[in-house]
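Anyone opening a protein record will find just a pair of labelled lines. A complete record is shown below as an example:
=====
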Amino acid sequence: MSDLLFSVFTNENFVDLGLYQYGWERCDPSHSFGPAVRNHYLFHYVISGTGILYADNSGGETVTYRIKSGQGFMLFPHQINTYVADNALPWEYVWLEFDGLRAREVVDLAGLSVNSPVYHAANGDLRNEMKNEMLYIANHSDQSVFHLIGHLYLFLDYFLRSSSSFRSSHDSGVRDFYIKEALSFIEQNFQYEISVEDIAASCGLNRSYFGKIFRAAVGRSPQEFLIHYRMTKAAELLKLTSLSVADIGNAVGYPNQLHFSRAFKGVYQQSPRNWRKENWIQPPSRR
C-alpha cells in the first residue's frame, strides 16, 4: 500500500446516493488541507494518529476539534474547513465523498451536523466493518460502478448503525410520508411544467408548510431540488443519447430551450452543448 490512494468516481447516474471521490492516505507530519469548501458530503475515518479539524459552524464561527484514531469527521457542502495532521503522530485516514437525494437523510440520522461533525462509534465491531468497506472502495477503483455503489450502501449502513449519535427515523413518520409522496410525484411528472404548488398539492399541503418540511428533510428547497433532479436527468440524456438539446430540454420539462440552457448551466457551470462534448459516450456500433 502506498502513502496515498485517490480515485474519482465519474458516473453521475446514481441519483439517490452516489460517489464523487474516495481514497486513503498516511499523512506526513503536520500535513494540512484547506481552507476549502466542498460541494458534497466528505467523510474521513481516522485509522491511526491524531490531528485537528477547523470547521465553521452554522453561525459562521470556526470551531476546533481534536480527532484521534477510531473517530471520524464529516465535512459538509458549502462549509469552510481545514484539517491538519499532528506533527508527532500524524493521521492515517480513509475517506469517501458522496451525495444524492438521500444523503442529507443519512447524515441527519447519524446525528452529525455542521455543529456536531465528529463521528464517535458506539459499537466497535460495526465501526470496523465500516472501516473495511471504506478501505475496500479505496482499493478497488477498477471494479464496476454498480459494485462500488453497492459497497457505498454497505458503508452507509455500518456508518449509521455504529454511530453513537444514531437516531431512529420512526419519530418523523408523518413527515417522511409527505416527502416520499413529493419525491414520487416529481419522479413521475418532472417532464411536465409542474410547479412547487403542484408538488405541495399532491401531498395535500400548502406551499409554505411543505417548503419548510421539504428543506428540513432534503437540504434543498423544493424548487432547487426539482431543478437539480431535472438537470441530472438531462445530463444522463446528453451523455447517453444523440437527442438534440432542444428535445432533451423538452423531455425534462423545459419547452423553452433558452430557459433549459440557463438552468443546466446553473447546475453544471457550462452549457448543455459544451457539457455533452466532454461527456458524451459513443454508442457501440451494431454488426
Q: What stands out?
A: DSSP finds ten helices and ten strands in the chain. The chain has a mean pLDDT of 90.
